């Protein structure tokens, strides 16, 4: 798969961002500018000069548009959504080696507002996924009642659940019950 480490990092931010939405987890995890600010720090998003209510609104809108790519249904539709995002973001690729990260490419325009910054970076990460023919790796958790998204980077593309604690536990309980059922079904061989 032609997915670089930088793309993987961007995809991880993408998943974290999408899973802050009420559609994903039942309540808004980015309800105010302070929460957005904490998200920016936690995800180490660079060159963000200031944050205000307009930035919060822009990030909420971007989040819905990014989520549409996960449910695009066809490569053509996904490509159209990604193209629109990246074009509107004023993407300007440039090499940088800030903060000892080694040489990598920033797609966002220098000191762009957070909405456009994320649209450029996350949009390009999605573009690489489409280009690599890996759109099917963008998934929605299959646990009942869970709408979180994840990117399945497993070798055999077998991942079905998000890694939230709740779904992990649900999964373990289900697996435990399944093991018990199969243990009951198989007659014990002498002991
Ligand atoms: Zn960087
Ligand atoms: Zn889940």
From TrEMBL:
Gene3D superfamilies: Jann2411-like domain. This is Zinc finger CGNR domain-containing protein. SUPFAM superfamilies: Jann2411-like. InterPro entries: ABATE, ABATE_dom_sf, Znf_CGNR. Transmembrane segments: none annotated. Residues 137-180 form the Zinc finger CGNR domain. It comes from Kitasatospora setae (strain ATCC 33774 / DSM 43861 / JCM 3304 / KCC A-0304 / NBRC 14216 / KM-6054) (Streptomyces setae).
